[in-house]
Specification:
Order of helices and strands: HHHH
């Protein structure tokens, strides 16, 4: 079932991000200096999030809050 959209909205299909782009998104949202030493952990988080942009952003925001 599609979500209800605002008037004039258009559906946009997005693909998953590459592993590199996923890790970069995590770095950008979470504190870059804190994640710099956690390259393998960021790649694992990206994998567990399915490299989906919205999911990655939520996970990175949680990291930032810690």
């Amino acid at each position: 079932m599609p979500l209800v959209a605002l008037s004039g909205a258009h559906r946009l299909h997005l693909d998953v991000l590459s592993e590199e782009s996923s890790v970069e998104l995590i770095r950008h949202v979470a504190a870059p200096e804190a994640v710099a030493a956690m390259q393998a952990a960021c790649a694992d988080i990206a994998h567990r999030c399915g490299r989906l942009p919205f999911t990655l952003r939520m996970a990175a925001a949680r990291l930032h809050a810690c």
